[in-house]
Amino acid sequence: MADRKMTQEKSKDSLPENFNSTANLTTNAGFPSSLSISSKDINDDKPYNPFEHREVEHPNSTFGSILHLLKACLGTGILAMPAAFKNSGLVAGLIGTILAGFICTHTVHVLVRASQELCVIAKKPSMSFAETCGAAFTYGPKSIRSWGGAIKKLVDYSLFLTYFSVLCVYVVFIGSSFKEVLDVYVPSLQLSIQTYCALTLVPLVLICQIRNLKYLVPFSAFANVLIVVVFAITLYYVFVDLPPVTEREMVSKVSQWPLFLSTVIFAMEGIGVVMPVENEMAKPQKFLGCPGVWNTAMIIVITLYGIVGFFGYVQYGDDVKGSITLNLPQDEIVAQSAKLIMAIVIYFSYALQFYVPMEMVNRMLQNRSSNKFENVIQISVRTIIVTVSVAIAAAFPNLELVISFAGAIFFSTLGLLIPAVVDTVFLWDRNLGKFNYIVIKNTIIGIISIIALVSGSYVSIIGMIEDLSGGHEVHYNVTR
């Protein structure tokens, strides 16, 4: 009996220490219906909370996060809204702006929600946009789990190329804005556009040495104040002698709607900035929800887009140009000052957009075996990226058409298609809703993204052909 008892105790001791004949199933806060077979997961006292494990050296406040998102979404694209309304009509434009804003808001919402839940599953404090996309496949259906690494790399490189392209266009916009104004008031100067682009190098290199989003908050706040000044000047001229609304089309031809859609989506999208902002919030749980940081920012964005687009089209009608500032009187100092102020806004926006490709570079730098010369490497890499963007802008001052083509491909894909795919893949084996409505909803979003991709690419190609033939005047106006 004693031997038998010792044998039983020995057998019991040989089992894993966390083995229990009665399994206690814990509830996963990030995704309640998922069950991990890992013994470690079963033995945890409480589910993994990624927010408790985030160690951000310089976290952003809730208000600071809203300012960053507003700066990311309120680019010069808002000045192109009257031209967008020209392609939709007043009524269709208002409805379309609200619907496009809702779709952009929703796709970011599902992406961030998936990221937060994947952090729980993967037991990681935070994930970037690319990491979220890769993890959705890695923890998704078994047949596509091996795709995770490839998807992550694809999104990473797409983000880098997209936002680097935006940086190049920003340089052209800043240089050309100063040239147009100074050519009028200092005619003896008459510098080339290449020279103006080159002169932006030192100021851009300096501001891009700021490594933490928290320290960019004052710049974002100042830029938001300046862009309000530009809007005020623009709206002043828009509302002077405003013609009757009845003189404008309520609904334009359906064939023109894709042009409206592509303009609105490309202007609103700030998909690459969203995850860095959420990851560096002091209270990331306030990013989603009602009202939430993201919803608050997008309500402001949609409202401003609708106002500028509606009344800008009412004032200038079919004569409205790609950027409404180009319709302002060129012989008035106040109108001309709007160009310079907008150039300063773009200067500060450059630093925020620069954060996206730099985030990818920083992840690559983390793989180094030593942190020696960290500051030297950071300064050098940042200087090189800025220098290359300035050099490309100076070499190709008509780069806008090429970049808009790349933006049409990447922003419609990154902002709409990829979040819809990530949401579908992540929820495929979990919960696709009643009648699989999530698949239906995401399929519709995918179709919209393809329409935006094709229409935006088509317009860019036509513009490039006209530019090569000498029949297209380039105003260096940016659609972001």
Q: How are the secondary structure elements laid out?
A:
Blueprint: H1 2-14, H2 39-43, H3 50-53, H4 62-73, H5 81-86, H6 90-122, H7 129-138, H8 148-185, H9 193-199, H10 201-207, H11 213-239, H12 257-268, H13 271-279, H14 293-316, H15 333-365, H16 374-395, H17 399-427, H18 437-468
Helix pairs in contact: 4-11, 4-13, 4-14, 6-7, 6-12, 6-14, 6-17, 7-8, 7-17, 8-9, 8-15, 8-16, 8-17, 9-16, 11-14, 11-15, 12-18, 17-18
Question: How would you state the average pLDDT, rounded?
Answer: 79
CATH architecture of the largest domain: Up-down Bundle
Kindly report the name of the CATH homologous superfamily of the largest domain. Amino acid/polyamine transporter I
Query: What's the CATH topology name of the largest domain?
Result: Amino acid/polyamine transporter I
Q: What does the main sheet amount to?
A: none
The Cα radius of gyration reads 26 Å
CATH top level label of the largest domain: Mainly Alpha
Count of the separate structural domains: 2
Shape: globular
Give the amount of beta strand, in percent: under 5%
- In whole angstroms, the N-to-C terminal distance is 82 Å
Count of DSSP H/I helices: 18
Question: Could you state the order of secondary-structure elements as H and E?
Answer: HHHHHHHHHHHHHHHHHH
What is the helical fraction, as a range of percent?
Answer: 55-70%
Work out the number of β strands.
Answer: 0
Helix-strand makeup class:
mainly alpha
- Taking pLDDT < 50 over at least 5 consecutive residues as the criterion, the unreliable ranges are 4-43, 471-480
